[in-house]
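Hi! If you just cloned this repository, the fastest way to understand the data is to look at a raw example. We've pasted two of them here, unedited. The first protein comes first, obviously.
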Amino acid sequence: MLREENCAGLRLRGADWFSWATAGGSNVILLTTDGGVAEVLVTQDEAFVITDAIEYDRMLQEEVPVGFRFINHPWQDTNFRESFVKEATHGGLVMSDKVHSKEVNLAPSLVQAKRILCPEEMERYRVLGREAAEAMTETLKEADPSWTGHQLAGRGAEALWKRGIHPALTLVGEERRLPLHRHATASHEPLGSRAMLVFCARRHGLYANLTRFVYFREPSAQEIRAKHDLAAIEAEVFAATRPSTSLGALYEQIAIAYARFGYPDEIMKHHQGGPTGYLAREEVARPESKMRVEDGMAFAWNPSLTGTKIEDTVILNQGKLEIITVDDAFPSFYADDRMRPDYLVRL
């Protein structure tokens, strides 16, 4: 690939690209950034992991598989990496995910390759998806209507951490705020009679994305209808998620489905998701999106209506969608040709 692009090196600094290149390693220290404390450099002859003396032993012993040559530099030397990259690539052109100086952007073929999971990645993803779903079930079965949104988010994060999963995102919509905000960050307000909990759960660089609801009362007829309508809308985009279909065409399919079920304006109130993997969304579907679906990609679609939402992580594997964020202990209902998460009702 480097020869095809007339490049002497490939430099990967982002947390997503580092995990992809190292088969699930992590360069993350601060969870709220998209960069890390180490980077990968690939030349036409060798693959390096470059890090400083603070991180060297841990990265070598715990994070990165064999096959890389480690380059360790004093943490005080802020110029070392640039000098090393220039020397290792003989001053040639370098592709990078975070372009610096005379570097160039990654080739589109490489960006697309990152989104196509190999069998080993799929297996890691399945385990992550199942455990993230189990953490969700555990959290909502313990929840109490007197808890604040902060408490529910904290309990969810604890359930993820004890499984070795980063709580990259824990959204909570409490009873009052749930109909008001599609991205309801946790607050000091009590949960009340119902609540939404959303996870973007990361391990080995992969993201498992899912949304669930807990009710401390019986759902209303309108809420039950919304649940079934959303599952039907989701079923249409699931059916359309097939190889060679553009992301823009999938967006249009969702828009048509919203209108068919009587909600033509709801698509304007929140994004609908898209391919996932080493980012919570590798790309969000928009009308103009050109990216095409390929077998081996993962997706997290998230259609929503006022006060409710449906979301899971799926893999397109040999032409069929496999939902991986599933816990059989969580209630479900039949929709189209699959089981979908129900409201967890706790009276």
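Ok, and the second one:
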Amino acid sequence: MIVKSMKRTLLAGLSVALLSPLSAAAETKILFNIFVPPSHFYWDVMRDWATQVHDKSDGRLTIEFTPKSVAPPPKVMDAVRKGAADAGFLANIYLGPKNPGAHVGLMPWVHQGDSEATSVALWNTYQKYFSDAEKWRGVHLLGMYHFGGGALCSVTDEKIESAEDLSSRKVWSLKGNLDKMLKNLNVATVNGPAVQIHEIVSRNVVEAFTGITYDSVLQFKIASYTKSCVQFEKSPFSINFSHFINQRVWDGLSPEDQQVLTELSGEHLARMVGAKVTEQALAGRDELGQTVEYIQPSDALMTSLQEASKPVVDAWIAKVADMGVDGQAALDFMRAEVERLSTVNAN
């Protein structure tokens, strides 16, 4: 009787297991790291993206978000490689030397004020020229996208109208190409992630800042310190990002779920993020303009910045040539794509 009872129990348990819905067992949760504050518009875009991923996968994939960043912005990719989060995004100024391809969008005078166009152009250019040439250690690349053109603003009553006006000041700047351009003009710079700019500006450490968008000036609460900004038709700098997932997590997904993420990333994600960036940039430019004076760059300033940018471009072209990539052709293609796709200028 005991044996028969055990058999019935085992059979009943097996029947329940066989008849239970597979979706619950197959559900995969992906922890995505976000380093910007919850009030930043990026959260809205990522929540929308997460909903799309969940729906398209019929509930098999759930994107969850870290309550706070698991690492400082420059170290997010390292943290994802180590498994502190399953996925994340990184400003490409922090990519290592083995991944210079995304820097094609960081070259001066690329961004024309349409971040959706620039995001798609970046992805198209990367796929055409760099996807076969670069390897991503420990992560699988899902997409890339651009934020807006970086502002150049004074926090004193003196406007920035020449290279001399810049070199006479200490200037906050993001690291990378923009910082190199400024150093070519003998400008003393203070560097750091954009999320830390308020501390620098509010303590009067610098007399100017550059590299963040108008809406970020508002977002990071430095508008009250800002007196004037130079308004460029084509930006000397704009920041872009890579969107990635831990390689082991990616390898553990079914081909169907990999396809879901692939289809909802790439150009699709570039358009999602880029369109929101442009919307924010237009609103931010208008709001900031109520208290800040916009000025057009003088011919002298433009000439100096263009001269200072040439060594930056030449160095990047030489770098990607070592990978067997024609950097000038890639840059020309990127600029042509931006020109072709742009419909609005929020610079």
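That's it. A detail worth noticing about the second one: The chain has two domains: 27-146+238-281, 152-236+287-341.
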